[in-house]
Amino acid sequence: MADADDVRHLARALPHVVEVDSEGFDFRVADKGFVWSYPERRPGRPRVIRTDVAVLYVGDEAEKQALLLGEPEVFFTTPAYDGLPLVMLRLAQVTVDRLRELVTDAWRMRVPEPLAGDLDDGTAPS
Q: Residue 53 to residues 4, 6, 74: CA-CA distances in angstroms?
């Protein structure tokens, strides 16, 4: 099953990605986040960075709902993310191959069009 090191490896392999210094992992392309550690917030308690859970950018609310309803053991959300195209992913519930697809898809949705072709030029993460 996948873990935070797999997220790091896959995200770093994508073109034009910048890793932001954080307690967990936080990756951006063109200053737009596409995958990061889940900052769990509990009332009255300090925020906890969960590296066993990734926050992924998804295309829109329809895709978000499809993931949440189709695989509730894998994906979840919280009220803080209502109305945002973001889902949380339980890393231990996916294979590295599935994680590769999810991270790459998130990257594709955030990368500017002129840079998107760089992935198709043979720089896909392995």
A: 8, 12, 10
